[in-house]
């Protein structure tokens, strides 16, 4: 049975993350595993002050700080359990039974440990610390998106049922992987499908687009196709708005990490600008 690792925190996106996980589970018969990760900045116990006793007058303050750290760690764990309990209760309301994991460590490492067991990760577009005014993406999202080898479902702020989805296709390895997943997964069964390629209207591009359409048709998925000239991110964003798209499917980070850090990437721009969920494939 497939498993969906669902990352929840105290952000406004957590409810949407849970709703999207429930939608995926209902269509794929997957199990939902909720995960909340406490960063290592949260201490797990008293600080060892044995090397600071000689400071004399400062030792009392250090002891007080150690007590504060211990209390803060306990509070963080209680808060994490409450977040998981709320998420479980919300999923139960729509008939989804979920397991939960409270972990301490680096989120990237904790997610990587679930790679063998998980078929998909669901994460919010932004976390608790993201700057909404500047459309900053959550730092954890960008880190996971660059390393997670399986489908990554990025939830928008508000959930809405998916009826129509768009595949941003460029003929590259990651977009071919996305196409294959759509053809095989019950998640996309009976949904309206569009395939969009942004680029020059050439024989090569037309052939690639038609080949993608035929591949989906052979799997029983009927798709509309379009080839639109222009900048990739601009073309995709406009299509999402104009065509009433509920979900965007695309390859992630086609450029090298160094290149994308220097000049940005279509993936990051799509995540920032699109108000619909995005499924990423590496």
Features:
282 residues; alpha/beta; Rossmann fold; 2 domains; 9 helices; 43% helix; 20% strand
Q: What this model shows, in words?
A:
The chain is elongated. It has two domains: 1-159, HUPs (Rossmann fold); 161-281, Rossmann fold (3-Layer(aba) Sandwich), CATH 3.40.50.620. It has helices at 14-28, 57-93, 107-113, 139-147, 173-184, 203-218, 232-242, 257-263, 266-273; strands at 3-7, 31-38, 98-104, 120-124, 152-155, 164-168, 192-198, 223-228, 247-251, 278-281. The model is unreliable at 42-55 and 255-264 (pLDDT under 50). The chain has a ten-stranded mixed β-sheet, with helices on both faces. The two termini are 23 Å apart. It contains nine helices and ten strands. It has 282 residues and is an alpha/beta fold. Strand 2 (31-38), helix 2 and strand 3 form a beta-alpha-beta unit. Helices cover 43% and strands 20% of the residues. The longest helix has 37 residues, at 57-93.
């Amino acid at each position: 049975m497939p498993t969906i690792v669902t990352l929840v925190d105290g952000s406004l996106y957590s409810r949407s993350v849970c709703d999207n996980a429930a939608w995926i589970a209902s269509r794929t018969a997957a199990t939902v595993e909720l995960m909340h990760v406490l960063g290592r900045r949260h201490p797990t116990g008293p600080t060892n002050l044995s090397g600071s006793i000689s400071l004399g007058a400062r030792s009392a303050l250090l002891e007080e700080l150690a007590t504060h750290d211990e209390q803060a760690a306990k509070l963080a764990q209680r808060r994490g359990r409450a977040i998981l309990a709320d998420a479980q209760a919300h999923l139960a309301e729509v008939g989804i039974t979920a397991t939960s994991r409270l972990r301490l460590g680096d989120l990237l490492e904790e997610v990587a440990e679930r790679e063998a067991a998980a078929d998909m990760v669901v994460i919010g577009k932004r976390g608790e610390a993201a700057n909404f005014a500047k459309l900053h993406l959550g730092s954890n999202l960008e880190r996971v998106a660059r390393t997670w080898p399986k489908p990554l479902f990025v939830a928008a702020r508000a959930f809405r049922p998916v009826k129509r989805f768009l595949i941003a296709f460029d003929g590259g390895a990651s977009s071919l992987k996305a196409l294959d997943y759509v053809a095989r997964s019950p998640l996309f069964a009976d949904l309206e499908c569009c395939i969009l390629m942004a680029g020059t209207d050439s024989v090569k591009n037309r052939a690639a687009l038609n080949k993608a359409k035929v591949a989906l048709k052979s799997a029983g998925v009927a798709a509309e196709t379009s080839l639109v000239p222009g900048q990739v991110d601009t073309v995709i964003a406009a299509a999402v708005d104009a065509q009433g798209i509920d979900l965007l499917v695309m390859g992630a980070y086609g450029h090298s990490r160094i290149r994308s850090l220097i000049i940005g990437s279509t993936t990051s721009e799509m995540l920032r600008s699109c108000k619909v969920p995005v499924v990423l494939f590496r």
